[in-house]
């Protein structure tokens, strides 16, 4: 008897629109609360319509936690490791994962970048260690699939996205 299940389910907390919060409350970005959601898409927390501010923090609220904030860089890597391309970053890990799994914008570049890594990078220079999530193109799935760890051939390399 084992209590193990065949799949581990990952649950990412999702921030949702709160209708009771107050649509007109003002964010540090100087725009109202409700503009930080997409009313055409189930109030998806898409970020501020006017300026792209991705997190509503009421004006005047302390932003101390921001100092510890990380970005999640998305870097694609060619087969021979000669070429890496940091295609962008997100403030939320799950957003970065979504981009990779959906191959948004064809970051795979039609086969040129069979590997992809998401790195959690905090503020500073030469920041290390950092959390990494690795992906390899899966021909059957026609998409990137997560792999449990960094491929051996990359063992002598680190800090792919930035720094
Ligand atoms: Zn804002
Ligand atoms: Zn704004």
Task: Describe what this molecule looks like in 3D.
The protein is mostly beta strands. The chain folds into two domains: 22-62, no CATH class; 69-154, no CATH class. The protein contains one helix and five strands, in the order E-E-H-E-E-E. A five-stranded antiparallel β-sheet has the order 2-1-3-4-5, covered by helices on one side. The longest helix has 9 residues, at 93-101. The mean pLDDT is 89. The chain binds zinc ion (2 copies). One zinc ion binds at residues 27, 29, 31, 48, 50-51, 53.
The side-by-side strand order for the widest beta sheet comes to 2-1-3-4-5
- The value of Rg in angstroms is 19 Å
Low-confidence stretches are none
**What ligand molecules are bound, each kind once?**
zinc ion
Query: What's the tally of helices?
Result: 1
Overall geometry: globular
Helix content: under 10%
- Look at the helices and sheets and give the structural class: mainly beta
Q: Mean pLDDT, nearest integer?
A: 89
Note the beta-strand portion.
15-25%
Order of helices and strands: EEHEEE
The number of E-state strands comes to: 5
Largest sheet: 5 strands, antiparallel
| Integer tally of domains | 2
Report the span from N to C terminus.
48 Å
Quick structural summary:
The protein is mainly β and 163 residues long. The chain has one helix and five strands, in the order E-E-H-E-E-E.
Q: What characteristics describe this protein?
A:
single chain; about 160 residues; mainly beta; five-stranded antiparallel beta sheet; 1 helix; 5 strands; about 20% strand; binds zinc ion
